[in-house]
Design a protein that fits this description.
Elements: E1 14-16, H1 22-37, H2 43-59, E2 64-70, E3 77-83, H3 103-110, E4 111-118, E5 124-130
Antiparallel strand pairs: 1-2, 2-3, 3-5, 4-5
């Protein structure tokens, strides 16, 4: 009998309308993936997915696509958030009086790495690899 190979399971993405409900739906999506994987502490993941989806909702364009998967090299969770907007997220300089603009700074503090890459079809994907 010939050996067969099984491709790794590719989790389905979550597609969201760009509304104020998107961050909460994305958090629930991430919590479910973590539960499936037996990861009890999902606090950093919830923070990351909420911030990235909020940025896509506020500054991106079109629907928001969320993927949560495990890096095949080390098993660490990765969060990707896609949107059709051209603007790239950046960490803003600290401003004590600001009422917003701190989210990506928080994300950078709790993840192993994060970045942004353009999509061939337009838009971008912002990703973060959790510790």
């Amino acid at each position: 009998m010939p050996a067969t190979s099984v491709a790794p399971e590719v989790p389905l993405p979550l597609v969201l309308d760009a509304t104020d409900r998107a961050p909460g739906l994305a958090r629930r999506f991430l919590v479910e993936r973590f539960r499936e994987w037996g990861i009890a502490d999902d606090s950093d993941g919830r923070l990351v997915v909420c911030e990235l989806v909020t940025n896509s909702f506020l500054h991106g364009e079109g629907p928001i696509v969320v993927r949560v998967f495990r890096d095949e090299r080390d098993g660490r969770p990765v969060v990707e958030v896609w949107d059709g907007g051209p603007a790239r997220p950046v960490i803003r300089p600290e401003s004590p009086g600001a009422t917003s603009g701190r989210g990506l700074r928080l994300v950078a503090e709790v993840v192993e790495a994060w970045g942004v890459r353009p999509l061939n079809e337009g838009g971008k994907v912002t990703w973060a690899k959790l510790r």
